[in-house]
Amino acid sequence: MKVQVLRGSKQQIAEAGAEMPGEVREAVVFVEGPSDPALAAPEQDIFAEMEPFMAKAGNAEYSRDALYSRQEGE
After folding, report:
1. pTM of the predicted model, to two decimals?
2. What is the phi/psi pair of residue 70, to 5°?
3. Using CA atoms, how far apart are residues 27 and 15, in angstroms rounded to an integer?
4. How far apart are CA 72 and CA 41, in angstroms?
5. Which of 8, 29, 32, 74 fits 12 for a cystine, CB–CB 3.0-4.6 Å?
6. Contacts of residue 17, Cβ cutoff 8 Å, sequence gap at least 6
7. For residue 50, with 0-12 CB atoms within 10 Å meaning exposed, 13-18 middle and 19 or more buried, which class applies?
């Protein structure tokens, strides 16, 4: 299976996906929200629905703070 990143407008991405040889098995799509804060959706975890498919190792800390800060080894 080959991973491919498609960027562009919705139309450009749809056309590029349709022209790909083979079968598309999965897609992760990032949609920019409205620029007007009044129209923006309430704060939500965009990866929550992917949780059942994520690989986790032991008792590692996966919070955003832990992932983006330097931790001393135990």
Report:
1. 0.41
2. -75, 130
3. 14
4. 37
5. 8
6. 6, 24, 27
7. exposed
DSSP code, position 73: -
Tell me if 21 sits within 8 A of 1, measured CB to CB.
no
Which residue shows structure tokens 């939500």?
44
Is-contact 33 41, C-beta < 8 A?
yes
- The CA-CA-CA angle for residues 5, 44, 42, to 5°, reads 120
What are the average pLDDT values for consecutive 10-residue runs of the chain, which has 74 residues?
A: 84 90 83 67 70 73 76 62
Pair 34, 40: CB distance under 8 Å: yes
Place of tokens 């007007």: 36
Which is nearest to 60 in space by CA: 46, 74, 49? 74
CA distances from 53 to 1, 47, 49, 56, 67 (A): 17, 10, 9, 10, 19
